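Handout, page 2. Input:
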Amino acid sequence: MNQDSINLIERYYAAFNSADMDTFLNLLTDDVIHDINQGKREIGKEAFTQFMACMNYNYKEQLVDMVIMATADGKRAAAEFVVLGEYIKSDEGLPAANGQTYRLPAGAFFEIRDNKVARITNYYNLQDWIAQVSH
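Output:
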């Protein structure tokens, strides 16, 4: 496993958990590819910045129980974790928000270039999340 890539992903998620969006976004390449869970592919740091602004407006999340792996050459990495969240503002096309909490297993796959995240693909069970916030 490539420790530099593992350290990069650790910094990425530490910035996420501390809501340090400047550090978080500076760990991305300008042409970052973002594969949204059960959604579309977006390209570019500007699109990712807009996505995160929406996420931070609608949700309050912390990622725990993190396990990070990387290939020997450091070009790819993966993370498995649990999302502890609160649904604070209703998101378009989803159930109404009223402060529901959720616990959701999730994972992410990364491509790494020049010690930055060049692609992130997120996975979680959307139907599980919907069931948790619909009660």
